[in-house]
Amino acid sequence: MNTAPAFYPIGTPETPWGEAERAEWLSRQSRQRSYEAEVLSAIEGLRPRFDVEEYGRLEYGSESFPLLAIRSRDWRDDLPVVLVTGGVHGYETSGVHGALQFVDQHAADYAGRVNLLVAPCVSPWGYERIHRWNPLAVDPNRSFREDSPAEESAALMRLVAPVRDRVLLHIDLHETTDTDETEFRPALAERDGKPFAPGGIPDGFYLVDDSENPQPEFQQAVIAAVEKVTHIAPADDNGEIIGSPVVARGVIEYPLKQLGLCASITSAPYKTTTEVYPDSPRATPEQCNTAQAVAVCAAIDYALAHQ
Questions:
Q1: Model confidence over 24-49: pLDDT tens digits?
Q2: Which domains does the chain have, with CATH numbers?
Q3: For residue 238, how many other CB atoms are within 10 A of its CB?
Q4: What is the pTM (predicted TM-score) of this model?
């Protein structure tokens, strides 16, 4: 898909937003679904089998969002830690529900083998608004650094800090959607006062490896497992996916730490960011959720076999 608007309706082209533009943007955002009904209720249903903790609370105006994490009930200090995160971009639905599906259907398979720490919905305000940013027009997934401007990111880093050097694997569950091109990239360009360069959206699943510590065999093991559930995104005519060179089938690389991405918050030897394409005519929401859960299982299986 390559269709994009000619302009974004807020601000002056090539002039960064000020407070007035951010306020106008915020006024246009509306609640479209319920974090409590769709996410918190699912987490509550897991309490009989797992430990659930509130690791923070977001206060935005009159709204309050508890941030919940799910832990293995049989946590042991001698076991490696597996970190699963979803909903860093709240609008990326299968990241949230794929993480919950993994816990519900597969987490028990790893009891006594790893300590699981799952934060299924890092950005609940974005989940409800179906948006990439938080209400300050800040992208949490570019904010995982000291003095983070996003409380969503800061809260997760505080949660992970006690175990960050014991994490064997961190898998961060994302989506690439058509609205990336029609809404979020134009908004980003306008917010930052930069020209918008139209691009394309890859049709299929792909992974983002860490260019500072690439693990190609690990990434390919995840791709091979997910391919049984949904199709893998091909490279475009330039040999790229979303502007980055394809280094192996279905895999690109980013400098995770430099960009402040969620997958950079631990010293795990195995890190990956999943990207599902929910707008594909070849994929259903159920397939997208299952692809995320399968990716988590494949990642854990590989990490345990190669630790």
A1: 999 999 999 999 999 999 999 999 99
A2: 19-305 (3.40.630.10)
A3: 10
A4: 0.96
